[in-house]
Write a structure and sequence with these properties.
The structure holds 2 protein chains of 2 kinds. Chain A is of the alpha/beta class. Chain A folds into 2 domains: about 210 residues, von Willebrand factor, type A domain (Rossmann fold, 3-Layer(aba) Sandwich), CATH 3.40.50; about 50 residues, no CATH class. Chain A contains 10 helices and 12 strands. Chain A is elongated, with a radius of gyration of 23 Å. Chain B starts with a strand and ends with a helix. About 5% of the residues of chain B have low confidence. Classes of the chains: A alpha/beta, B alpha+beta.
Chain lengths: ~325, ~625
């Protein structure tokens, strides 16, 4: 269910991820499909629903006895002639699966600037939106920040509208604190279109916060997936001096520490525990999880990592 | 205690750099992070109140760096004289000409003197020998414990105008150090680099270099010129001026004859160059002095003295000359600057003549007070028999080395119309021989039968038109012969400083010699030569009252090239010829400080590793 992209090839920076949100790159994702197992909506669409049938369609599902009120045009006349029983043919139901992309646009996503986490999140959101729109499923994008969830664009139904997504997210990026639960609650209150919800964030919040947020989405009938954006500087913080004054860009709090090798090892362990904690919780509740390293080439991150995680196929 | 390399303390700014680096490293640089969540695992650093509170690592680094600096400076102990030990000290002081070079208002000899006195004062219990090194080594004081008297002697030392020869002086010093069981230190004070002497002479010797100034202009050479056929008025001088420095120099070159300015030229000399100045037709004789007026470091080589011979025409008395010969000889005035003072057939008035020429005449005996030239004598000088005559005798042999044939190709003499057949007298040397009728006979014989020179020319000049252009070689032969016979004596000798001039003369012993400084020199009667230590005029007075002058010029390109590469004093660490115990004099211990520095750096490395491991 989870995968971490790892490749010797490293992206060079923010420009590469910006290019990944452009049409040239997005066209390379045409053959991908979202791996929809649940989260389909009420409107007819192209996603077959395994557990539901409908009176008309392309894929035959089963027969059922005729019930009064059924449309006589749906009676299988061959079966009536053979068995002398009125049976009605049913077909596999196909519904649209609206995609809800929830992108963390708090200040932590733009810090450190060299990591380009916000740009990577926007590129991943654009790629997922493109895949969904090519499958004729609508896309809704929201920016999660301290104030809640903001719809950065109207419900998208065509790939040509994607610039609304990228421009809207870029306009929101880099402000406020990360409050996932509050933002998700705000988002759920603003929409009544269940579907697939993919949350893209660095998840640098208490585990209670992200657990409540994603539990709230699952309870709302959404099929949830999680993408953790990770930067190189976040993995290995560097400084010109041994002693540094740590400044939290979201809260403004400070802390003076010595960047000794021992302390670096403690930091690396804390990061690893944080990622593993998120991964194990997602596995436990059946949420696909993937880590995208901003140092990885966008093509590999979008295709290989998301495929391995089962988010796309 | 002193430092062999005090310039090493220039690198002290590295310590300041270390402190600045420490302060910079201690600065709290701000590091923006996305969240404090992950940093909770790291304990917060203890913030000190004082800005500069170095840790043990810093002190170790500081001590290591200070030790490295001190080791580079190479300290040595020079006063730690142990009671009960005795030692000796030999000071070799360079007294050559280049030590007169001015270095910032003082001379190199003054600098060497100061260094030597400083060394003496640091070793109050030692016996001291002082050796002066010039052209020849000289023991100025033997081993002496009276340091104040030695210092006084050193203070009175004067440099000589001679070249540097350190090795003989060092040989004496090393020999003196071997002659005793007492440990002996040798210190050399010179402007010559240490590597210029052989390894066997510099081993175990402390070297004190003095001087770096290269700014010197010198008269490299002076040549006076006068052609064979030129008279004294056409005498000229060529003067070479060399700039040994690395800067362009300006100056003037003045030429004086007998104190009167005859020529002066302003010049600009590019660095490391030589310029030649030609002063033709000086039209003067006497003491020629060339002097440079320029600001340079060594004044000694700015002067030159030479001698332009006093003009006096050669006085010739003709005896028995035919009218043709007398007429021809009288026309030699312009070419040979000779005048005929008597042309009587009997030669009655030969007094005052420089040369008596006998033509077709054989005197009873050759005069002792005047040079003699016999031309085609009718009788042989030795046998008194009439001389036979050969016609058309061709020149067949000659002595190339003789002065009489200078500038002449004898083959161009061809043949003589008439040649007397004569025997070579015992005092004579055949210079030219001719052949006729298969018989080779002497054509020209020269020699010194008494106090004056004499020559016998068998060819009859009366029948040879030697003033015609066809007989130019014969004319040159006659002129050379007259020059050689006249033997003009000069009471002036020109020499170079550092040379030795022979002054012994059994007939006229030297009674007094006055050096260029006006001081009389002690002269032993058995002394054969005089060493010229100073530039200037030496006056030699003989018992017969004659007085001759020796002009000693300083001409030594190695000494004039005073530029020296800056060098640090070299303190020998094992400058004792003998003895197992070591006196702690001039013993450098920089190596031990280097070892201490290495140990400190290893300790610092270990502490740093431990610091990293424990955060």
């Amino acid at each position: 269910m989870t995968a971490v992209a790892s490749t010797p090839e490293r992206a060079t920076g923010k420009e590469r991820w910006r290019e990944a949100s452009g049409p040239a790159f997005l066209r390379s994702l045409e053959r991908l499909r979202l791996n929809v197992r649940s989260g389909t909506g009420a409107h007819p669409g192209n996603n077959p629903v395994p557990t539901a049938t409908q009176d008309s369609g392309l894929e035959f599902a089963k027969h059922r006895p005729y019930l009064p009120g059924d449309d006589l045009r749906h009676i299988d006349w061959n079966a009536l002639a053979r068995h002398d029983t009125k049976l009605v043919k049913t077909f596999r139901a196909e519904r649209e699966a609206p995609l809800h992309i929830l992108v963390d646009t708090s200040a932590s996503m733009v810090t450190p600037a060299e990591d380009a986490k916000a740009e990577a999140a926007i590129a991943v959101a654009a790629g997922l939106a493109y895949i969904s729109l090519r499958n004729r499923d609508p896309v809704r994008v929201a920016a999660l920040d301290q104030s809640g969830a903001r719809h950065v664009a109207p419900l998208l139904r065509h790939p040509q509208r994607l610039p609304l997504l990228t421009d809207g997210l870029r306009a929101c990026a880099g402000a406020g604190r990360t409050t996932l639960d509050v933002s998700v609650r705000s988002y759920l209150a603003s929409t009544r279109l269940p579907g697939i919800a993919i949350m893209i964030s660095d998840f640098l919040v208490d585990k209670d916060d992200y657990q409540r947020a994603m539990g709230r989405l699952q309870a709302g009938g959404y099929a949830v997936a999680v993408i953790r954006i990770l930067g190189q500087r976040e993995r290995e913080p560097t400084a010109t001096t041994r002693r540094v004054r740590i400044f939290d860009v979201e809260t403004g709090s400070e802390r003076i520490v010595d960047l000794s090798p021992h302390h670096r090892a403690l930091y690396a362990r804390a990061l690893q525990e944080h990622i593993e904690g998120l991964r194990s919780w997602c596995d436990a509740v059946g949420i696909p999880f993937c880590v995208i390293d901003t140092e990885v080439l966008p093509g590999i991150a979008m295709i290989q990592s998301l495929t391995r995680a089962g988010i796309v196929r | 205690m002193g430092f062999t390399n005090p310039a090493a303390f220039i690198f002290s700014f590295f310590i300041v750099g270390l402190v600045l680096l420490y302060l910079w490293e201690r600065q709290q640089r701000r590091l923006d992070v996305p969240s404090m969540l992950l940093w909770q695992a790291i304990p917060e650093a203890v913030v000190r109140r004082r800005r500069f509170q170095p840790d043990n690592l810093f002190w170790l680094q500081l001590a290591g760096m200070a030790a490295l600096l001190l080791g580079l400076a190479n300290p040595y102990l020079d006063i730690d004289f142990e009671t009960g030990h005795d030692g000796r000290l030999i000071l070799v002081i360079d007294l050559s000409a280049s030590m007169q070079t001015v270095e910032g208002g003082t001379t190199r000899l003054d600098l060497a003197r100061e260094q030597a006195i400083r060394v003496i004062r640091s070793m109050p219990l030692r016996e001291i020998m002082v050796i002066g090194a010039g052209r020849e080594p000289m023991i100025i004081t033997p081993f002496d414990r009276g340091h104040e008297s030695v210092i006084e002697v050193i203070g009175n030392l004067q440099a000589k105008d001679v070249s540097t020869r350190l090795e003989p002086a060092l040989a004496i010093a090393q020999r003196a150090s071997f002659q005793s069981d007492v440990r002996t230190a040798i210190h050399v004070f010179t402007d010559v680099p240490r590597h210029s002497v052989g390894a066997r002479w510099r081993d175990g010797v402390s070297w004190w270099p003095a001087g770096t100034n290269s700014d010197n202009l010198a008269i490299a050479d002076v040549q006076t010129t006068q052609g064979v056929l030129q008279n004294h008025r056409e005498m000229g001088a060529r003067i070479a001026v060399q700039n040994y420095g690395t800067k362009e120099k300006h100056g003037s070159l003045a030429v004086r004859v007998d104190g009167e300015l005859v020529a002066q030229e302003l010049f600009t000399a590019p660095p490391q160059s030589t310029q030649s100045f030609h002063f033709p037709q000086l039209s003067a004789s006497g003491l020629l002095e060339a002097s440079l007026q320029a600001e340079d470091a060594l004044a000694l080589d700015n002067h030159w003295r030479t001698w332009l011979p006093r003009f006096r025409p050669i006085r010739i008395a003709l005896v028995g000359a035919t009218p043709e010969l007398a007429n021809t000889m009288s026309r030699l005035d312009d070419a040979a600057e000779a005048i005929i003072i008597d042309a009587s057939p009997s030669g009655e008035t030969t007094g005052g003549a420089d040369i008596v020429v006998y033509h077709h005449t054989t005197p009873e005996s050759l005069p002792d007070d005047v040079a003699t030239l016999l031309i085609a004598p009718l009788a042989d000088l030795a046998t008194r028999k009439p001389a036979t005559e050969l016609r058309e005798a061709a020149v067949v042999d000659w002595n190339d080395d003789h002065e009489v044939l200078r500038g002449i190709d004898p083959r161009l003499l061809h043949r003589f119309a008439s040649l007397k057949v004569l025997q070579t007298p015992p005092w004579g040397e055949m210079v030219l021989s001719a052949q006729a009728a298969d018989r080779e006979v002497p054509a020209l014989v020269v020699g010194k039968p008494g106090s004056r020179r004499a020559a016998i020319l068998a060819a009859d000049l009366g029948s040879e038109p030697f003033l015609s252009s066809d007989r130019e070689p014969l004319l040159l032969l006659v002129l050379n012969l007259i020059d050689w016979l006249a033997e003009q004596r000069s009471d002036v000798t020109v020499a170079r400083t550092g040379d030795s001039k022979a002054i012994a003369d059994p007939d006229a012993p030297v009674v007094e010699v006055i050096d260029p400084k006006g001081m009389p020199l002690y002269i032993d009667q058995a002394q054969l030569s005089l060493g010229l230590d100073y530039a200037g005029t030496y006056q030699v007075v003989r018992q017969d009252g004659t007085r001759t002058n020796i002009f000693a010029n300083f001409q030594d390109s190695e000494e004039s090239n005073v530029g020296r590469t800056p060098a640090e004093p070299y303190a020998a660490t094992s400058n004792y010829a003998q003895g197992a115990d070591s006196l702690k004099v001039n013993r450098g211990f920089g190596v031990w400080i280097y070892i201490a520095a290495a140990m400190l750096l290893i300790a610092e490395w270990i502490v740093a590793i431990r610091s990293v491991e424990h955060g």
